[in-house]
Amino acid sequence: MLDSAAPKLGTVPPAVPDRAEAAFRTHSRYVAAIALRLLGRDDEVDDVVQEVFMAALGRLDGVNEPEAMRGWLATVTVRTALKRLRRRRLRALFRLDPAPEYAGLSGSSNPEQAALVSQVYRILDAIPAQERLAFVLRRVQGEPLERVAALCGCSLATAKRRIDAAQRSIGRAMSDE
User: Fold this and answer.
1) Angle separating helix axes 156-176 and 145-152, nearest 10 degrees
2) Phi, psi (degrees; rounded to nearest 5) at 144
3) Which CATH architecture is the domain 102-177 placed in?
4) Is 73 helix (H, G, I), strand (E, B) or coil?
5) Which of 20, 88, 122, 126 has its CA 20 to 30 A from that of 171?
6) How many Cα atoms occupy the beta-carbon half-sphere of 93 within 13 Å?
7) How many other CB atoms are found less than 10 A from the CB of residue 20?
8) CA dihedral of 34, 35, 38, 42, whole degrees rounded to 10
9) Residue environment code for 108-137, b if the CB has 16+ CB neighbours within 10 A, otherwise e
10) What is the pLDDT of residues 143-164, one digit of tens each?
């Protein structure tokens, strides 16, 4: 006979939703900010935030420190963004999506700065996703090199190479325009 005190199949213990909701309230803006910078488009940010917290839901009990939670969610966000960027590249190859708009991304009222940010993100769309992630994490997000390597799941030397390759690609593309 089943114990009536045991949770029924498919139910979630009450502590998990409370912890998940608290994590979401505390960290969702941080996750959204990283996703926006990595992807460059706000139309995908809500989906990424949702994916990150769905992935995190089953693993919240293993993360006790608030800073560890934040770092772990950043790693999940980077991996989720990488998948989206690869999918986006494939869709662009077959011209399944309209050209992206980066107009509101800079957050600046200066039209020259907004145009420059749009130009850089259009260039970033053309480079490999892993180079883009490393570059954005370092140059836009301001992460230290060691953290970029950790978030990207690569060595420090590889992170440096990716950042440099992206920087060169951006420099070449901007000098051509």
Assistant:
1) 100
2) -65, 155
3) Orthogonal Bundle (1.10)
4) helix
5) 88
6) 6
7) 17
8) -120
9) eeeeeebeebbebbebbbebebbbbbbbbb
10) 999 999 999 999 999 999 999 9
Amino acid letter for position 28: S
Residue 154, judged by CB atoms within 10 A of its CB (0-12, 13-18, 19+), counts as middle
CATH of the domain spanning 13-100, picked from 1.10.1740.10, 3.90.660.20, 1.25.40.890, 3.20.20.140: 1.10.1740.10
- Give the pLDDT confidence score for residue 55 in this predicted structure: 85
Distance CA 90, CA 95 (A): 9
- Residue (of 167, 170, 127, 132) closest to 152 by Cα position: 132
Residue ranges covered by each domain of the chain: 13-100, 102-177
pTM above 0.85, yes or no: no
Q: How many residues does the chain have?
A: 177
Write down the residue that tokens 């060595």 correspond to: 155
Is residue 71 within 8 A of residue 23, CB to CB? The reply is no
Question: In angstroms, what CA-CA distances link 105 with 50, 69, 88, 157?
Answer: 21, 27, 18, 30
